[in-house]
Amino acid sequence: MAEVDHSGLRLADDLFFVMHDDITGRMRLAPRLTGLALAAAVVGELMLAGRVTVGLAAGQVRLAPLGTAPTGDALTQSALDHIVAEPSHRFRIWLQFFARTAYAGVAARMTTAGLLRPPSGRLVRRRAPVDANTAAWPLGRLNLAIRRRQPLDPQDGVLLGLLAATGGGRLVLWEQNPAYLSSSLSALPLPLRELVAQTEAAVGDSVISRR
User: Fold this and answer.
1) Residue of 51, 54, 56, 195 with fewest CB within 10 Å of its CB?
2) Is residue 26 part of a domain?
3) Within a 13 Å sphere around the CA of 45, how many CA atoms are in the beta-carbon half?
4) How many domains does the chain have?
């Protein structure tokens, strides 16, 4: 396993930085796709922390909470509370639901943490990073791992998977390596593999609904 320094960033923080220009804060993808990706990253944080997993009921893939202890973070706590209260919804429905507020929630958390500057004027969708090096690190780390063919830890494996699921990988990765992507996804635990698959399906639904 490669040694990876996440510098204290959570999965959704990493993804937010990767999906925005590290100088200007401009979105690299359409807002709808960015919202879905960030929603998936918040669910991914719960999975990485062992707070939710994947279940199958009546032939449908669902999110199953693994306890109700506080997460210690308002954003993931809100998501967990929703899942605990209404566990019957399909996985993809949760992604669509969380996507409505994921951008604002992740941006607010990162602003409070001193990672993003508050929005100014009419540029509410433009959140410039406080430090460009910090913002560039998640993508740089991922690109170096791909170039060196290093195995990814689960957080970076999901990060790569979500980039592929949204089409963002074509914009930001130095090289496209389907074999490396496949092996990295195969190495993930089943719930995280399902997270990437459900995100890709939700992105497909989103594209179709916009036609």
Assistant:
1) 56
2) yes
3) 24
4) 1
Identity (one letter) of the amino acid at 165?
A: A
pLDDT above 60 for 181: yes
User: CB under 8 Å to 157, separation ≥6 — which residues?
Assistant: 184, 185, 187, 188, 192
Per-residue H/E/C for 62-116: EEEECCCCCCCCHHHHHHHHHHHHCCCCEHHHHHHHHHCCHHHHHHHHHHHCCCE
Integer angstrom CA distances of residue 92 from 43, 75, 172: 11, 19, 26
> Is residue 162 within 8 Å of residue 193, measured between CB atoms?
no
Q: Count Cβ atoms within 10 A of the Cβ of residue 193 and give its class: 0-12 exposed, 13-18 middle, 19 or more buried.
A: middle
63 neighbors 191 (Cβ within 8 angstroms)? no
Q: How confident is the model at residue 209 (pLDDT cuts 50, 70, 90)?
A: low
Instruction: Give me the CATH number covering residue 189.
Output: 1.10.3630.10
Does a structural domain hold residue 194?
Answer: yes
Q: Tell me the residue range of the domain where 136 lies.
A: 11-209
Q: Is residue 87 part of a domain?
A: yes
pTM over 0.70: yes
